[in-house]
Amino acid sequence: MRSIDLGTPGAGHAAPVTHVAWHRENPRLATASYDGTVGVWDVTGGTVRRIRALRHRRLVNCAAWNPLRRDVLATASADKTVAVWDLADDGPSPARLLARHTDDVNSVAWLPDGARLACVSEDGRATLWDAEEGRFLATLTAHTAHCMAVDVSHRGTIATVGEDGLVSLITPDSGARDARRQYETSVEGCAWSPSGSALAVARDDGYVDVLDEALDVVLSVRVCESATRSVAWAQDGAALVVGAYDGHVHFLRAADGGRLGRYENARAWPRSVAVGHAMVAVGSFSGAPLLLDAGSRRGLGDTEAPTHGVNALAVTGERLAMGCDSGLVVDMDIAPALAGGLPSMRTVRYGEGPVLSLAARPDGLCAGTYSGHVVCRSGERVTSLALGGPVTSLAPHGTSVVAGTYNGDIVELDGTRAVLGRRRRAHDGSVKSLAPLDPSAFLSAATDHTVMAGTVTERTRLWRHGNLVNAVASLDGTVAASASRDHTVRVGTLERRAGAWRVRRSWTLLGADESVKAVGLLGPASAPVVLAGSYDFSLRVWRLGPGGGDLTSGDVLHEFDQAVSCITRIDRDTAAVAGWDGRLLLVSVAGGRPEVVAGFDIASSVGREKARRWQP
């Protein structure tokens, strides 16, 4: 397994902050990041100063301080390990590594004895470990989908929640009967009250529930229209702090759910919130966590500079547009880039928070943002429409634009007047990707494992993956491809009969060692070339026509220093490929064999007139 190697310019992370955790005694904060590192920060007077950086091989999802040993920290990573660090030791390696997990580890929590760790994973399992000896002890419970979070009360009761909607309580030492509660929606965050008598859970439908020790509902509050992702208790147990995918941090009275206020910052990534030392820490789309005063709920200190990871690509005329974590859309001339020159660069701000999706229109460009807006620019005219949650996907559709939403809706928009048009629930999970199929139809892919084709109102399921689907692509209206977390790429030739789409022939392409994040199609429909980028940093290629290569593993065309984030076709023979390391490749099949013809460092080109070339 290759390690992320983004470098750490400045004093912070080189990618967004995924998790925050306060030390119980000292004004210290641990942060996890997409850059594969854990930061340990000294927090004095509302400012943060990083004093230590710890490294995993993949992005880090969680950090947890030991309740008894002040210098011991556990961290959970997508490299399928949990590391236990003794910060009294200045060495670069963890004291122990818990490495028998079969998938990404999403969350960890210490038991009160300070010796055992509860760990939960994307494979659905919650496991118990002896952290002193690095020894696996037991499987606590199993979810039928990704297990997302774990918390342990001071009484030793372990709570786990998952995308299957299950809330599970386990008391390994008391012999008490385990308790379970089943929701119809995903539950991705949980936190015990300071007294250990109440559990708060964050639900995907915008609610936060407070449950007693029998998992009966004590309080249920609709926080927002989007998903709630994280929850924490005030130190005195009187208030709840809720991070939601509307981009806000919400403050509620724990007794009755009354609203105390909310905090809004476009660079906040409230998939994680934590309360400690009279402050609230929040994950962010910048190189450092955000800090709030717990009493006034106002921001403290300065916000670290944003990161410029590329999330989306689109071709607008003779230019290639790239949507970034920083809220910028960066574009460059395509022709000079392909000819070996230094293309001109322009940056346009579409907001302060991340741009997640892009769609080119004949009269301009539309961007979908994490804050839940579709922003369309046509010359000097700018229109914006709020959809209530992160806009994870966009695609042109005739004279309009279609947007995929976090709750599974597909919405048709008039990009000129920003008028909300037809809207339909198309998937049972978040719509991750859209791609035009022909002038009247488009593909969609979602976390419900399905790929569909059709119009806004009439859609046909093409196939189903074994896990969520990250991306779809099409070619000439007759070929479709999809990339999935099940490590596969599916490709099918399509035909339309009586208004419905049917798969004539299909292939399943293997090769990636991890989730496949992006997919693209080049060449003629009779002999398509498939490009796919993965969380294992590889860009692979398959040729499906006569004389094609090995369809089992494909050929590795290039390796990035982070996951490959997106692919878009420039013309029949050329594609752009971007990675979360801020780099861009141009790939061509014009010579009959796929090759990388140019590379650019987009992250370091922001603010420059010319793109900086990068030698692949």
TrEMBL record:
Per its UniProt entry, which superkingdom is the organism in? Answer: Bacteria
Q: What is the lineage of its organism?
A: Bacteria, Bacillati, Actinomycetota, Actinomycetes, Kitasatosporales
Output this protein's name. WD40 repeat protein
Extract the Gene3D superfamilies matched here: YVTN repeat-like/Quinoprotein amine dehydrogenase (2.130.10.10)
The record's SMART domains line, in alphabetical order, gives: WD40
Name the coiled-coil region(s).
none
A single Pfam family, by name?
WD40
Ranges for the WD repeats = 10-51, 53-87, 98-139
Keywords carried by this UniProt record: Repeat, WD repeat
Q: Which organism is it from?
A: Streptomyces netropsis
The record, for InterPro entries, names:
Quinoprotein_ADH-like_sf, WD40/YVTN_repeat-like_dom_sf, WD40_PAC1, WD40_repeat_CS, WD40_repeat_dom_sf, WD40_rpt
